[in-house]
Amino acid sequence: MKLKSFVLSSLFLAIGFLLHQITPPFLFGMKPDFLLIMMFISIFLVDDHKLTTIVGIVSGILTAATTTFPGGQIPNLIDKIITCQVVYMLFKILKNRVNNNITIILVSFIGTFISGLVFLYSALIIVGLPVSFMTLLVAVVLPATLLNSVVSFFLFRLVNNALRYSMGN
């Protein structure tokens, strides 16, 4: 792990956390999960398995500390740790085979869906759900998956351009 990669990942998570906290709900009460999106971008750009695990744990701690879901602390931690591993594997499979823009959209879509699925399932087992699993999956996870995929595309382009200009290319 290089210090530069560690700092870059920390910066992305901090930006994602801040954006998540200050963004008001705008689409039927929903908002993009910026921390999750920045976690994906960090994993993609840094490409280091050890750092991916650290990013997943830190993301889980940050979301656990700020969750509004009753009893959602442990499910948040579980979901981020599992999701970051799956996302890392997906990036490894798709990198250099598929265009980066398409890769980030696909991985963001799958990663957000897995994150929501793991969160709901672990919450169901640990604390129970206020409504049925399928209702939450259809009403919350699927729309969030679509929204995160679109937002991740634009944030990825923004971050990529910023990094390219900062490195003088």
From TrEMBL:
Residues annotated as signal peptide: none
UniProt KW Glycoprotein keyword: no
Parts of the chain that traverse the membrane: 53-71, 106-127, 133-159
Domain of life: Bacteria
InterPro entries with a match to the protein in the record: TrpP
Keyword terms, alphabetized: Membrane, Transmembrane, Transmembrane helix
Keyword Cytoplasm: no
Name of protein: Putative tryptophan transport protein
Gene behind this protein: trpP
